[in-house]
Design a protein that fits this description.
With 130 residues, this protein is an alpha+beta fold. It is 31% helix and 27% strand. It has 4 helices and 5 strands; from the N terminus they run αββαβαββα. It has a 5-stranded mixed beta sheet with strand order 2-1-3-4-5. A hairpin with a 4-residue loop joins strand 4 and strand 5. The radius of gyration is 13 Å and the shape is globular.
Length: 130
Amino acid sequence: MDDSGTTEALIGAARAAMENAYAPYSGFKVGAAVLGESGRIFDGCNVENASYGLTVCAERNAIAKMVAAGDRSVKAAAISASSGEAAYPCGACRQVIAEFAAPDVRIYLATNEETVVCILSDLIPHAFKL
């Protein structure tokens, strides 16, 4: 994805979603946005639970919203966290992203100062595939 306007919209959606995160236990709010094959942007935030294992990450929420809307392919993703530092997706989210994205998909990690750009295959070089 090379369109800077779309990239900025994607990052903006991740930052806005972060504000809606439910993180009363960790205080670590995360927002994510994915660009679907339709050109639509789908956002999500982390939703914690007192039973930590039931917490759902922002990235998986954004992808679930994309799938529920009928898109099946992530063309780019952005993640923003309340820490102000680059928040890399956890292992589970990397695998879920890999289910719906090509290995060369760009993932934008928005910080307060800059945006770190990663390639999915660098984050999960040997993703599980059936």
